[in-house]
Amino acid sequence: MNLALWIGAGLLAAVALVGGVSKTFVPKETLAAAHGGGWTEGVGVGFVKVLGVLELLAALGLILPAVVDIAPVLVPVTAVCWVLLMVGAMVTHGRLGESKFVVLNLVYLALAAFIAWGRFGPESFTG
């Protein structure tokens, strides 16, 4: 199970990294024109950038604390934060009628919940 949790955290960190880089460094207008970018219409540039930075921090928080063995409890805490972020993403995409993105966010949510459960529980870094 430890291997599955590491793989899940790696996959989710990759998703967070790609999303974070795009939201942080790609202009809002370019994001809005991309498939699934309709959510950017009602928000400011600052909000998009903040989401991007949060996703970059999530990418680090899912891996780095465990690798360097400094505050590894941040791994499941980050996973719980990702769950909350995905709830918001699902609501936003749902309001826009983008059911494909709702399902994709649900997959990410489930993966984050698995990581949180595993790292707080049976495969905790502290035990």
Automatic annotation (TrEMBL):
Places the protein is found: Membrane
Membrane keyword on record: yes
Membrane topology of the entry: Multi-pass membrane protein
Keyword Transmembrane belongs to the record: yes
Signal sequence residues: none
Spans traversing the lipid bilayer: 56-89, 101-120
Keywords: Membrane, Transmembrane, Transmembrane helix
Primary localisation category: membrane
Entries under Pfam families matching the protein: DoxX_2
Single GO cellular component term: membrane
The protein's name: DoxX family protein
Species this chain originates from: Streptomyces aurantiogriseus
